[in-house]
Amino acid sequence: MQPFVRFIRFIRSIRRSLAGLVLVFSTLTLSVGVACGQASAPPIQLAQNITDGCVIRGAYDPQQDYFPQKVDLDYSSAWNVEYYRNYKVINVTNPWTGASETFQYVLVQCGTPAPSEEDYPDAQFIEVPIDTIVMLSTTYLPHLVDLEVLDSLVGIETIDYVNSQEVIDRYHQGNIAEVGSGAGVNIEQILDLDPDVVMASGSGVPEYDTHPTLIENGIAAAINADWMEQSPLGRAEWVKFTAMFYNREAQSSRLFDDIEQRYTDLMNQIQNVSDRPTVFNNLPWQGTWYVPGGQSFSAQMMDDAGASYLWRDNNSTGSLALDFEAVYERAIDADFWLIFGQGMQGIDDLVASDERFGDFTAVQRGRVYANDARVNANGGNDYFESGVVNPDAVLADLVKIFHPELVPDHTLTYYRRLTPSSSDEFSSRIFLPLIKRQ
Description:
This protein is α/β, with parallel strands linked by helices. 34% of the residues lie in helices and 15% in strands. Strands 7-6-5-8-9 form a 5-stranded parallel sheet.
């Protein structure tokens, strides 16, 4: 086990002992009161979850509710939780597209007895609050920062695509190791780190999934399926999933409530907008133009931002595979074009990649935006890191693009406008057609 992991566990063990002593002291105080002839009192009720300690031997009370602070799920549909007195059961019901299996986790308050494995034969049993975690996606890293448990992170897939400065700093300090993922995951290194949990996503494709190998080696693997949610707030609400492993339900609920409030405030501003500009997405890839389905996460966010997405009438929650001509015909006169992180530096780069792009009205009017305003040197896009847990900031960007008068003080965070070249030759080649059409 690496030295910094041992150090973390040493500090945590001291904290857990102190937390346990508080419970014992409270129990002894009640016992003394009863022994001295005072009226019998009901069991002491915890006011909050135990976020940094165990119930030590002799202090466990089977009548105690060890999770007085619980979460309610208002938007997420891919997981649920059931609470019992000293344990909670998480069910990940929709881990990936077309999944025929589900995942169950029994999270037991440290220092209390676990339920019978016969009652949960397919579940993974994990004591909480956990001390250490490995995360195999940058999407989950902001959860640890916001929940103030980043010191528990001991491993990540790779530092290359991380944008969080807090995580980068801890990596360079030697507190976080790179372990790879999928078929390339370093199981020996993970076993050496000995994390309480490894959080990863699943796809159902063995050569890409990490969790089967982890489970085979006795490592708890928590499947995070935030990407299966079809609403921005549904994805953001997965911060509550991460919080479950730290007993930090109250903190995650406060975080999410603030996000929800900001998001809905922006939506309320959009409700009275009569003009909803048309918009389409992405670029062709190897001859196919993939656009979001009409019931997808992206379509929902564009609708919430007051735009009219051109394929909103489609019922798909995934992507639509179209040919160039199909998109050209429908989107040629669209007001806006949103490109999802495909490396175009400006309008001239876009048109240079395919001259037909110059025919689009959005190009000629300079209304092309890309979601790669925050990309690190290795191509790691913060839109897919902090943007997932902050959909209110992404929505504010889109409102700024479609209806700038509603958010005059907002500066784009994740999106940037693709600006045209200043050359006269380029300007005449792209913008002259627009003048002729007006």
